[in-house]
Design a protein that fits this description.
The chain is an alpha+beta fold. It is built from two helices and eight strands, in the order E-E-E-E-H-E-E-H-E-E.
């Protein structure tokens, strides 16, 4: 599990879907969901790390990370631009795969 430098709570647990590659977040029931808004906010880095270790399933997800978030009004938003791009989905530039298996997007 990777963590961004100088990470402060609140955080969410994030990963990538092994089969589809899309971004996933851990909800309050320890289920993987696609929306950052549905992610469980951890107020403790230690608790988030412990839960991330327990839910690590290499057959389902890869690249589990703790992601720093902030609350703006009632919306959960990523604090780091990299995570904001991941949370908002594919970019506007989509390049077809050379193998035809999947497309690559760049934001």
């Amino acid at each position: 599990m990777q963590q961004l430098a100088r990470l402060d709570a609140p955080v969410v647990v994030s990963a990538n879907c092994l089969l589809a590659g899309h971004v996933l977040y851990l909800d309050e029931n320890h289920a993987w969901v696609e929306a950052l808004a549905s992610a469980h906010l951890f107020q403790s880095l230690e608790e988030a790390s412990a839960v991330a270790v327990k839910v690590n399933d290499p057959a389902q997800v890869i690249g589990i990370e703790l992601v720093g978030v902030a609350l703006r009004a009632t919306q959960t938003v990523a604090r780091h631009y990299r995570e904001a791009m991941r949370a908002n989905g594919p970019g506007e530039y989509v390049f077809p795969s050379l193998t035809g298996e999947a497309d690559v997007s760049v934001q």
